[in-house]
Design goal:
alpha+beta; five-stranded mixed sheet; 13 helices
């Protein structure tokens, strides 16, 4: 059954069904005459073909792919576009870049200003660095190292304009008010200092990590411009889907792993220029290293590549299989992965794992911890759906991506390895850590913004763990298949957009045909522990 077999169900179950028809029928042929045998064989093959046809209907992605196509065409007409040229200098720990942004006013208001996030400015001082105090020794293993972004020469439609930087926010005054439906082109040049810090933005001894690195448009929603700072807890990012073209020139010997698809590579005396294109993604990240080795494989039309360094080829092979399994499982359980490329980058990254569109960062030390490595790869791959395809305000409602991703990770283990393995993973990685935290610190509501959490420990226990438990409880109330249908509906309705908790509730209600709003919000706002099932 699909509920307990997951990956082994849709394709293999149907093939096995047709094989069962063949085998059970052939066993009866021995006592028949030739004429009857031929008749039975003909019927058997007709039934086998029918079973395989049923299989094709089960795994058909056409409905969701058509939905993706229609939504993609609509979003492509209104989304921002970024064209960025980067010159990377690892010796000086710097980049120089030029960015052109096509901004479309999708708001109902006439706009006189446009805002960008400048996340690298959080690294200017130890006081503003986006790390909890207890993590500073890991974030800065050789002592504090400064990072920043300096933006210069801002032009709008070719005209120099006023701009002002306040912390991690850039305000650009438009040359002319921009009416609803209008568009404008904003050009800027910037230079960045890369800190020695093995986190999202920074470098270690082996890799240079560029996550949340370029001026990215703030989101304008019902609350106006979202100008939150780079908080030290959670993933404090919120962005709209966009289209990117990024060229990166690096010294000879360096390889670049990046969001999107590599479309061109130009080798010159001055270095190598890598050109990437990424359509309908909500961010663009890249990692550079002179030590990278690669392993690649293909699954369901997507090329999965593992970047690693050192003598870890066997571990990299396992990582590749985990990545392929995860893309295959989530693509068939929720809806297809619509991108051509997916990169798993083993990096100097003390945090463990971090998701970006088409690319995830994984701490290279996890290559020595097979069980944990698979869990983190599965978790970060699930984020390609919950954060990537369906975005959300990760500051205001972080549960929408993290709790869904933790729950999806359990689904992965159930689907790939069976129910008993899923139950053990659920208990070991979610239930027991949460109960341990709860005994010492109590509990609190899931539905809260990141700045209301006092520590990473609390955030992890409540948003990740309790959030996944809440979804398991919802599963026990409405049924696993119904929750799956709700998540597929949620994906179909909000793909390439940003969703909120109400969108999730509406997806559940559509499938159930009744109002589960009060039930869901009661669980999300429950100050104490939940009372649902504690096993997968």
């Amino acid at each position: 059954m699909w509920i307990t077999c997951g990956l082994r169900n849709e394709g293999e179950y149907c093939i096995k069904s047709s094989n069962i028809i063949l085998v059970s029928s052939i066993k009866k042929l021995g006592s028949m005459d030739v004429k009857n045998k031929k008749l039975v064989i003909a019927v058997v093959f007709i039934l086998a073909i029918a079973a395989l046809a049923f299989c094709t209907r089960l795994v058909s992605r056409s409905v969701l792919e058509d939905s993706y196509k229609a939504q993609a065409e609509r979003i492509r007409e209104i989304c921002p576009e970024y064209d960025i040229q980067v010159l990377f200098d690892p010796v000086q720990e710097r980049i120089q870049a030029r960015q052109t942004t096509v901004f479309r006013n999708n708001t109902p208001e006439e706009l006189r200003e446009v805002y960008f996030h400048l996340y690298p400015n959080a690294f200017r001082s130890l006081e503003s660095a986006p790390f909890p105090l207890e993590e500073l020794k890991y974030a800065y293993p050789e002592g504090f190292s400064q990072g920043y972004i300096d933006v210069t020469d801002v032009r709008v439609d070719g005209k120099s304009v006023d701009h002002k930087v306040e912390g991690t926010v850039l305000r650009v005054t438009l040359a002319e008010p921009l009416k609803p439906g209008g568009k404008t082109q904003i050009e800027m040049e910037f230079e960045e200092k890369i800190p020695f810090s093995p986190g999202r933005f920074g470098h270690g001894k082996n890799t240079y990590n560029f996550g949340n690195w370029h001026p990215i448009l703030s989101v304008y929603d019902d609350s106006g411009w979202n100008l939150d700072p780079y908080y030290s807890i959670g993933d404090p990012f919120y962005s709209d889907t966009a289209c990117y073209r990024v060229s990166i020139t690096a010294p000879d010997g360096f390889k670049i792993a990046a969001s999107g698809k590599p479309v061109k590579k130009v080798i010159k005396d001055s270095g190598t220029t890598w050109i990437f294109e990424a359509e309908l993604v909500r961010d663009f990240a890249w990692v550079a290293s002179s030590e990278f080795k690669e392993l690649s494989g293909k699954v369901d039309g997507t090329t999965v590549t593992v970047y690693y360094f050192g003598s870890k080829e066997d571990a990299a092979k396992r990582a590749l299989e985990y990545g392929k399994q995860a893309i295959r499982f989530f693509g068939r359980y929720f809806g297809p992965y619509p991108y051509d490329e997916y990169s798993i980058v083993m990096a100097d990254f003390y945090i463990g794992g971090m998701e970006y569109p088409n690319l995830v960062l994984i701490d290279h030390h996890l290559m020595d911890e097979e069980v944990l490595m698979e869990y983190v790869i599965a978790h970060e791959t699930a984020h390609q759906w919950w954060y990537g395809l369906v975005g959300n305000n990760q500051i205001k409602e972080p549960w929408l991506d993290e709790a869904l991703t933790e729950y999806s990770t359990v689904l992965y283990y159930e689907g790939v390895y069976g129910r008993s393995r899923g139950k053990k993973v659920y208990q070991d990685f979610i239930m027991y850590p949460y109960r341990f935290y709860e005994m010492g610190s109590g509990s609190s509501p899931i539905l809260r913004p990141v700045f209301q959490f006092k520590s990473w420990g609390e955030y992890d226990a409540i948003v990740y763990k309790k959030g996944a438990i809440m979804l398991k409880e919802l599963e026990s109330r409405i049924g696993k298949n119904k929750l799956r249908q709700a998540l597929r509906s949620y994906l179909k309705e909000k793909v390439f957009e940003n969703a909120d908790t109400e969108d999730f509730v509406e997806a559940v209600n559509r499938v159930m045909g009744t109002d589960f709003r009060e039930v869901i919000y009661d669980m999300l706002k429950a100050p104490g522990n939940l009372t649902g099932e504690e096993a997968a």
